[in-house]
# Entry
Amino acid sequence: LSMVRHQPEGLDQLQAQTQFTRKELQSLYRGFKNECPSGLVDEETFKTIYSQFFPQGDATTYAHFLFNAFDMDRNGSIRFEDFVLGLSVLLRGSVTEKLRWAFNLYDINKDGYITKEEMLAIMTSIYDMMGRYTLPSVRDDSPFEHVEKFFQKMDRNRDGVVTIDEFIETCQRDENIMASMQLFENVI
Amino acid sequence: MAAGVAAWLPFARAAAIGWMPVANLPMPVAPTEKNKRQDELIILNVSGRRFQTWRNTLDRYPDTLLGSSEKEFFFNEDTKEYFFDRDPDVFRSVLNFYRTGKLHYPRYECISSYDEELAFFGIVPEIIGDCCYEEYKDRKRENAERLMDDQEDNKDAKLPNMTFRETMWRAFENPHTSTMALVFYYVTGFFIAVSVLTNVVETVPCGSVPNMKEVPCGERYTVAFFCMDTACVMIFTVEYLMRLFAAPNRYRFMRSVMSIIDVVAILPYYIGLVMTDNEDVSGAFVTLRVFRVFRIFKFSRHSQGLRILGYTLKSCASELGFLLFSLTMAIIIFATVMFYAEKGSTSSKFTSIPASFWYTIVTMTTLGYGDMVPKTIAGKIFGSICSLSGVLVIALPVPVIVSNFSRIYHQNQRADKRRAQKKARLARIRLSKTGSSNAFLHSKRNGLFNEALELTGSTEDEKRLSKSTSLIESQHHHLLHCLEKTTNHEFVDEQYYQQSYLEAGLQNYPSQSPSLSSQDGVTGTCCTRRSKKQHHTPLPNASAPAHMQPLKHTHTHPQGLQELSTIHIQPLSTSRSSLNMRVEEPAPLNCQSSQITTAIISIPTPPVTTPEGDAHLPAAPTLQNVVKVSAL
# Structure
């Protein structure tokens, strides 16, 4: 257990940077600080917390990708600012911003392109969260098939990678995706 | 779900946006927070000491007093606070449970008052954190033993229904219960003493007959001693037989240490009776008489201290064994050395190494009889080294070993306890894990039921069912539901999964049957008939345990009437947060009785979907969400 402690920026600055109200920020910080008194979440703790929501499967790989998506400055730990900035995008951002965030999640090496390998890794981690006891049973090539379908939909110019524009454009045309993006508006 | 994890639920839900672009199906509707209000402080006045916390903190555990509407009974309108006339010190632990999710047991607290407070606030003690669980269990056990002791004292008063045998056994075990038992106790004690005394006095030389040398009393007054011996043995035999008769479990009694001692104490006499005239074995017979001294061990029934000593020795046997082993090593080493040192000297007593053992032992234990002394200089040097090391070898480890006894002894006890509790602890963890996943599956069925109910407009039942899951739980279930939709697979119970795959392996097209029966349904027959039919079809679903998956299939008549029935919802193992919940009764409905069924087709094939799709689409396109046909 490291004795590193981190104090977040002031409430006013965070209020300016995010779309949350003062009270919301207060309540978020209270919850965050309760769980991580040191003010930092490292990857192991993050994985443990996230795994508790998915008792039947193995959520650690997906949690790893999520962690990288939140840890924007790549220093191995999530501070409250990272946490709250990410949440601001996810809950209060525009649809384009949310799609950008999702693209960032899928693009593991952050080079601006989603390759099939990256997507397969993400998909496998999502299917891992389902666990063994599913109906129908998750076959070994289920993630792969899903990736194929995804690329068929998203990859317009068939060059084997999905760029941010293809991604956003395709998603904006899909009603299901647009509807589901608004699903968690009132989470906080 | 743990309180801390509940704080991260909004985050997990927000992160679920990452699945959305990947999913091919529409997502389920999120549960709405009715009357969402800003978090407010709530004042809890416990016997004058004011505690304050957020209302949300208390809402984390809706099945306790503070988390439910039960606390409204304690609301004081004048002061706008909740007043509890309870112990404020224990309340600290209770409130900390809400804050941290862990229940701690303070050591200075009396166990019974703590239990009372927990019972008042509706908290099950089983969720005490691991840090305090052992202590709690120990105190609880002590208390229970104390209560049992009290009960036994009261029990001595009157038990009219005991048989004669049971009375006897109780008299033997507790001499204080009746006067007869006490008399018996003292009489046997007296005779044990007498018997041991005669054994001892038998060997004392008492007086000499003029023309013979001194003889021991035993040979002089043979008859007297024999009579005494006989009397004692008779008493002991009678006692043993009576105990054997009264014992509730005779086999176990015969194997116990005390009965073995009894047997060994009286056996020599009978053996002696049998073979008095045989000269060859008279030597053996004499040896057998030695065993009469075992009668002294019968005193251990009369002495608590002796029993404890015996038990202690038994439990520290390994430590004693090690002490003996190290002593043996030292003895052998020094004996060898002394032997070779004294080899040269004339008329040396150290004739062999085993002969030197005696010298080494006597020297090391600082006895120093002086029957064997070294004569050579080397021998004297080694002899002194031997006696010095003897002091060290014996005097030093003994206190260490003695303290080690108590430490290792208690540690072993604690380790055994922990091992015994480990299984229980793992079971608890597993239970909470399966509990949360089972809660999801359970609520899925409830959810389908709820949505079906919504259509008929019976809101009271819906409210009743939805009250049982807190908002946090329903949000968590919604999250899991979204994951199902993203991957297009469903969570099932382990049991059901294994069963369905056991059966699916035996059949090629299990889905043919529902298609047949669905044809019947389309023609407008009653649901009951179809559901009855489906019960007999060899579907994987059908043979699943009844409480797990009642065969579900929503079917709407062309007129749009929906037939509902009583679903027997049996709760599976409850999640940790709802340990306090009682088993839910199956919700009775005031509707007609036929089965509500939803299609959960395990292996979808085209023949299945089309007829049912036809059946459903014209009837009620709005019901698509309810049907939840998981077609790929």
User: Anything to note?
Assistant: Strands of chain A lie at 40-42, 77-79, 113-115, 134-135, 161-163.
